[in-house]
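does this look right to u?? FE2/S2 (inorganic) cluster version
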Amino acid sequence: MRHWFRTQPRFDRHPDGKKGLLQIYQFSGKAKNDRPRSAYGSAIMTDDVDRNRRHFLAVATAVTGGAGIALAAIPFVASLKPSARAEAQGAPVEVAVGSLEPGEMIRVIWRGRLVFVLRRSEDMLARLPKVTEYLDDPDSLNADQQPDFAVNEYRSRKPEFLVVEGSCTHLGCAPLEQFEVGPAADWFGGFFCPCHGSKFDLAGRVYKGVPAPTNMRVPPYRFIQNDVIMLGAESGAA
Ligand code: FES
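got this back:
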């Protein structure tokens, strides 16, 4: 037989908000949903109930917080994973050059950078030695501007193909091609930057006395077939 019994009165807040002695009644025995009751008949919080509720709140907070952290971490994890676009931007690019006519140039985007691929004619190649006295670094001594394979008078793997980044080494404008000779006596064809007037020859070598400090950069590349360039992959057969 279960019955209500009276426990020790204690100083606590009454349901009407005032503080004072509170008489607590407790059911004997254990039954589900039994709550200690005050003299007013409303359930009150004993130490046990208080501890259980605190435990519940702590667990709920931890679970909610953990879920929040997990959700917040998803974008970071996702950002660490290389996207297909990033992979495409970083991956080597194949460039078919077989259909290029002598004197013709194509533009390629590799790693978000503009790259010029120019098929130089015999006449263009013959002009290269004529311009060296006007150039700042005709022998490509600045090692930062080209891979070792391009340290030669053509700055390329094969004389007829020039592969350079289409970016002026002053402030990064895209130089314009001006492949004809003259009218200036020192102009044998090359690239002209319209932003501040820097000039480069048909091997991307910078003229003296212009804002651009270095030759145009030669990216890593190799020929994977006689007429196919792999841009961005330097090692392997030339
Ligand atoms: S960016 Fe080309 S000369 Fe300044």
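DSSP finds three helices and 14 strands in the chain. idk if thats expected tbh
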